[in-house]
TrEMBL record:
Organism: Cardiobacterium valvarum
Top-rank taxon: Bacteria
Pfam families tied to this protein: Hydrolase_3
UniProt entry keywords in alphabetical sequence: Isomerase
Name of this chain's protein: Bifunctional phosphatase/peptidyl-prolyl cis-trans isomerase
């Protein structure tokens, strides 16, 4: 039995299925039960605060959220107050824009307030599928701190970006669609955000639990004391997890918390 002080949840395919706009009805009771048990509730996501799905935001507003690690650890809050942030150097943003314009690539900027893109062309639509709100504003970076960029390119075009030498300035790319990827600091990750938050709150990492499903959760699982993988998650993550639960449609989050003794409830659906 593991008794965490703090539990982190990934959003996409852990709490929420974005393509179906589906949030299990057990998520709200799970968060409520954690608070009743004296456990802090947290989210660790690659999304910006401005891109948290409406249904997830409704749960947060209903029960409260203690910690938000967002934009892959680039912008982190404790009960609404920013406690660590890592904006990209404007000189580096200008260089990425120069490279993209030379190749006629679309690009975008992520702040805590919005997602702004260089254009509204078809490749952008094809990669976002309307799941993330954005506006077209190629000069947005000149007026706001930017914590992550998007570059809308194929894997073949990504090789051209690598050949430019830009990534050697201390940056990494994370592909999330055949036509799009994130660009952020090389040490940016959910794990860094979690370490920073726990240092500020004086919570031992060994007393932290995390739920996830994807490859960008690997470092998070290596950092916390107890990792729980979703049943339909990546095999690499499940191999690293200390517990594998069912997919979200089968109330994997709620039932894992019950089975592990974190919350005192009956399994979801039990008589």
């Amino acid at each position: 039995m593991f008794k965490p002080q703090l539990v982190f949840f990934d959003i996409d395919d852990t709490l929420f299925r974005k393509w179906e706009n589906f949030l299990p009805e057990s998520v709200l009771p799970a968060f409520q039960a954690l608070h009743e048990a004296g456990v802090m509730v947290a989210i660790a996501t690659g999304r910006s605060p401005c891109a948290i799905p409406t249904k997830v935001q409704a749960v947060i507003e209903a029960v409260g959220l203690d910690v938000l690690v967002s934009i892959n650890g680039q912008f982190n809050r404790f009960r609404g107050e920013t406690i660590a942030s890592h904006p990209i150097d404007p000189a580096d943003i200008a260089e990425v824009i120069r490279i993209c314009r030379a190749h006629d690539w679309d690009y975008g900027f992520i702040s805590e307030e919005k997602m702004a893109l260089s254009s509204d062309r078809q490749r952008v639509h094809d990669s976002l599928y309307g799941t993330v709100p954005y506006e077209t504003d190629p000069d947005y970076w000149q007026r706001h701190p930017i914590y992550q960029m998007n570059v809308f390119i194929t894997a073949e075009e990504e090789a051209e970006l690598a050949a430019s030498g830009f990534l050697q300035r201390g940056y990494q790319t994370i592909r999330w669609h055949p036509l799009a990827m994130d660009l952020l600091h090389a040490d940016g990750s959910k794990a860094r955000g979690i370490r920073e938050v726990c240092a500020v709150l004086d919570i031992p990492l060994a007393q932290v639990m995390a739920f996830g499903d994807e490859l960008n959760d690997l470092e998070m699982f290596k950092t916390v004391g107890f990792g729980v993988a979703m049943g339909d998650g990546r095999e690499e993550l499940k191999a690293l997890a200390k517990y594998v639960t069912t997919p979200l449609e089968e109330h994997g989050v709620f039932n894992a918390l019950v089975q592990l003794g974190v919350i005192d409830r009956k399994p979801w659906g039990a008589a």
